[in-house]
Known about the structure:
globular, 5-stranded antiparallel beta sheet
Amino acid sequence: MATSGTYVTEVPLKGAAEKHYKKWKSENHIFPDAIGHHIKNVTVHEGESDSHGSIRSWNYTWDGKEEVFKEKREVDDENLTLVLRGLEGHVMEQLKVFDVIYQFIPKTEDTSS
């Protein structure tokens, strides 16, 4: 049985939105070094690691079991948005659609506190 629904949250980040966007766009291959106890490896199958349309797989541990998640990446530099679309793997056994959308919104006078 597939689960359905949408989850939306905002996470305040210190620093410029552009800086965080560039890190998530270009440097997420370092996750295995930072949290190697969960994410074991990230492999790029098509395209460059930070390019629109690239396809990559993540090898990770879930409940002590080795799993794989394959994604297609959509990059929108103008709107500081990254979309990770699930293609296959452990997550897709539970969900029909798995899209993770990261949008980095610059602070304005109204949003800074």
